[in-house]
Predict the 3D structure of the following.
Amino acid sequence: MNKKYRVGVDLGGTNIAVGVIDENYNIIGRGKLKTNVPRPAEEIMADIVKAVKMAVLDAGISLDEVESIGIGTPGNVNKEKGVIEYANNLYFNQVPAVELINKLVDAKVYLENDANCAALGEAIAGVGKGRKLFIAVTLGTGVGGGVILGGKILTGTKGAAGEIGHMTVEYDEEETCNCGTKGCLEQYASATGIVRLAKKQMVETSALAKIDNLTAKDVFDEAKAGDAYALQIVDRFARYLGVALGNVAQIIDPEAFVIGGGVARAGSIITESIEKYYNDSVMFALRGKQFNLAELGNDAGIYGAVRMVL
Amino acid sequence: MNKKYRVGVDLGGTNIAVGVIDENYNIIGRGKLKTNVPRPAEEIMADIVKAVKMAVLDAGISLDEVESIGIGTPGNVNKEKGVIEYANNLYFNQVPAVELINKLVDAKVYLENDANCAALGEAIAGVGKGRKLFIAVTLGTGVGGGVILGGKILTGTKGAAGEIGHMTVEYDEEETCNCGTKGCLEQYASATGIVRLAKKQMVETSALAKIDNLTAKDVFDEAKAGDAYALQIVDRFARYLGVALGNVAQIIDPEAFVIGGGVARAGSIITESIEKYYNDSVMFALRGKQFNLAELGNDAGIYGAVRMVL
């Protein structure tokens, strides 16, 4: 049978999202399941295959027609061995993902870091289209990043390049980040980090104090509504992120930054608040870079995961 | 006449150092003059040509045999226009260097950032030889950096990539850096930065308090001799630099770091003190990178400047 379809899997801390892509780069079928962490890696891998089968069914094709499955996963990936070395958000440690999936389905399976996939997705089909050198930042449960260089992901020596979320931005942090160190960008600029910041020194008169199960969205919504404390939290978020991206620019000098992930749905308040701190922190030659919101939303990861198998 | 020799110029805040390179990559002649800043760019360019002539004479060749002159300069370079856009240490602003030199000598003239040249020099002939992806840091009057990727310099969109010295490492700095922003790595990890740190809260009982015209070398010497205050300064230097290089690693994931420049002559105290803070600040996958002292010393800049014209 003609194996002409490719499948992209965006494996996240919350969802497993799958897309079947045709030869013209359209998503022609989708599948989605909850990740439900923590649970054994074998179960999650089995659910990836299940979600792939759902997407194949949705596309009206046969599993035999699938040439390859590209998986974007959080954490650190050993591509040669097909192993997810560790992924804190998934509670994974040395998971032989390719082997586990190949026990269940006969297709080429490839791994890549999820933030890299999102970056690559935006490079192929989204706001980064046509750009040669840009930085994609994903503000979700964690903070991911990807460096796109000459249209490709910079993976680095051990596949850990682009891990912007674990840049140290605060020397005085007392709480430990998921990665084991302290003061990482992710502790201030992820959805969880923003909530953590807000709860830490909550001002009782703030609208935020009255919200149960506070989310990052609440913080941005109340900031837009003019709540002084929410504005303060957004300002702290923006300072950490803006200066960190300034430091990225000092090293890479990219054409632009693309900001995606759930937090970025707050819209232009994100890019506008970052830009000020960014421009204040960088050398003259690096000022005035473009900050774009990602265009593809959740599909960026699927597109990027597919792309890597080309 | 057969133009078979290339010339590399390392233009620094203190010296203009020139080397003539033969086909086998040997330096066969040298010239050196003081830069003597501040003075008009035209004079400095004329002295570059003078130092080139000295090197040509030293090599026993003729100026007509020089095919190209590569110049490594501090600051930001527009290669297409042949302009040094600005270089704080040289008091340069929009200097049409290629044009000025070509008025005096008939050879192809190329510009590159000096730290990039030093990085490339180490990549070709020094400790970085054979490495594909590494970071070179130059601790001199300022702090320069270069990212070597696939054996080439990463220049970035506007030639400002690798400017590690102007990464923001301190939010609370009150003094302004040469670049116009505050809290740059250069303010703590350059020779001048180290002296500034030492003088700021000088402890009268320290051996450093007794030294006139304190230098960075004095600080490292007294630290090696066990002076408590000098050790404290070295520790602060190491923290800023170690965490900054950790942040570079989070983005690039290089094979190794190469530390050069005048400050690096202090030896292994530099790499050892940095490594601790580096390893404490990065993700697990990035720990244990090699920190090497540069091997070529002042010649790295000459080699790198020549290389870029190949």
